[in-house]
Amino acid sequence: MQTNKSFTDRIDWSLAFILFLFFIVSLVAISSAQTSGQYLTNFVPRQALFYIISVMMIGVLMYFDPEQYKKMAYYLYGFGILLLILLMIAPDGVGQIAAPVNGAKAWFHTPFVNIQPAEFMKTFYILALAKMISSHHEHYLIKTLKSDFYLLGKIALCLAIPLGFILLQPDLGTALVFIAITLAVVVVSGISWKIIAPSFGGVAVIGATLLWMTINAQDFLSRAFGLKPYMFERIYTWLDPYSYAESGGYNLIAAMNAIGSGEVFGKGYQGRQVYVPENHTDFIFTVISEDFGFIGASAVIILFFMLIYHLTKITLQFKDTFSTYVCAGIIAMVTFHVFQNIGMTIQLLPITGIPLPFISYGGSSLIGNMLALGIVFSMKFHHKTYMFDKNKK
Q1: pLDDT by residue (tens digit) across 156-194?
Q2: Is residue 2 in a domain?
Q3: Which of 210, 133, 219 is nearest to 172 (CA)?
Q4: With contact defined as beta carbons under 8 Å apart, do 344 and 286 qualify?
Q5: Residue 83's pLDDT is what?
Q6: What are the DSSP calls for 80-103, one per residue?
Q7: Mean pLDDT confidence for 325-352
Q8: What is the mean pLDDT of residues 227-249?
Q9: Torsion region of 361: left, alpha or beta (phi above 0 gives left; psi -120 to 50 gives alpha)
Q10: Which residues, 6+ apart, have CB-to-CB distance to 321 below 8 Å?
Q11: What is the spatial distance between Cα 84 and Cα 162, in angstroms, rounded to a whole number?
């Protein structure tokens, strides 16, 4: 077993460099977005401060090893649920601490930064899910369909609690992230495909049915599930934005025009001409595409591929199941965020309030994602290699 590495040799400098590149891309994109004149606030120094805070947080997170994270997993999960409960019961009048934004009661408003508990709950949920599955396998050494069904039921219960609170906000985009995390971890959890295949098939059928009902049975969904009109409008504007060009389809049309107008090489830094609302947060990809064209947009997508590939490579090095499940959940979280955010700007997916990880402006989003990667840094830092380990570097 190799234990004589120096402190600096145990740090994942490749991952640190990838995050540094995201830092540069984020500041350049947000700085360019400032020229739209939508906000008077200069968000660049704030984003830089969020990155500095995140780096300091990662330094603290690296102090703990995987066994300590495993011990803390349920406590952190409970803390996250407590934050979601407090958010629900907090005063939500105009100007109060939990005042709704765009119809969603998802933030604690403070004089310094708006805090979105769900962003941190994602990582707490991944830790709890990983502990639950790894502990289950330690207890049930011989797998059976009965034990797999039991595990699937525990996973469903673990998901249902935060998912319920998030849907009550309501925040459909974040709810979808939790579902994506769960599906990914279930795939690598060792549950028999005799259970997974029909379960996933059932989920697909339910999803297709709900999409059909969204278009053809809105009144029933509103009565049965309390869905809001704006949720239906997002589906309509996704399928046919030009019929809603003056209302819900405006953002999507503007986003597609901005991306298309960048062509191959873009219009240059701050050379944008198409106005896109919230282009420093949810629609930051339109700024990159219009300023730097297909080349710049492709470079950002490649950067995300580099991150996901690197995280996958790290995951394959781990020998303990807890670390493997944690990294699988984090990979799923980042991948879904990227796919959803970029997909919604090109009409591939409906528009949701999901930011582009590590690039969009936002303290809760950035620090929440860096919290997840901080745990990866820690697991890699404390990872031990063995003399005959084929993954030894």
Answers
A1: 999 999 999 998 888 888 999 999 999 999 999 888 888
A2: no
A3: 210
A4: no
A5: 94
A6: HHHHHHHHHHS--STTSTT--BTT
A7: 93
A8: 76
A9: beta
A10: 130, 133, 134, 137
A11: 8
User: E-assigned strands of the chain?
Assistant: 108-109, 114-115
Instruction: Tell me whether residue 197 is in a domain.
Output: yes
Contact 338, 295 (CB under 8 A): no
> Token pair for residue 358?
């590590």
Q: Is the pLDDT of residue 43 over 80?
A: yes
Contacts of 352 (CB under 8 A, 6+ apart): 172, 173, 176, 234, 340, 344
Per the rule left: phi > 0, alpha: psi between -120 and 50, beta: everything else, 347 is left
Amino acid at 199: S
How many domains in the chain?
1
Are residues 240 and 248 in contact, defined by beta-carbon separation less than 8 angstroms? no
pTM: 0.90
Domain of 376, in residue numbers: 8-381
* Cα–Cα dist 71/63, whole Å: 14
- Token pair listed for 321: 């199941």
Percent of the chain with pLDDT strictly greater than 90:
52
Tokens of 367: 């620090």
In Å, how far are 67, 73, 153, 329 from 322, measured between CA atoms?
9, 11, 19, 11
Q: What is the C-alpha separation between 204 and 187, in angstroms, rounded?
A: 15
| Cα angle value 260/237/261 (rounded, 5°) | 10
Distance (Å, rounded) from C-alpha 380 to C-alpha 315? 9
What is the mean predicted confidence (pLDDT) over 224-239? 73
Within a domain: 392:
no
- How many helices and strands (H and E) does the chain possess? 13, 2
Residues 6+ apart with CB under 8 A from 63: 378
In a domain, 207, yes or no: yes
Q: Are 105 and 169 in contact (CB under 8 A)?
A: yes
Q: How far apart are CA 14 and CA 7, in angstroms?
A: 15
CA distance 208 to 261: 34
Contacts of residue 289, defined as CB under 8 A and 6 or more positions apart, other chains included, come to: 258, 259, 262, 266, 296, 297, 345
DSSP for 304-352, written as a single string: HHHHHHHHHHHHHH--SHHHHHHHHHHHHHHHHHHHHHHHHHTTSS---
Contact assessment for residue 377 and residue 10, using Cβ atoms and an 8 Å cutoff? no
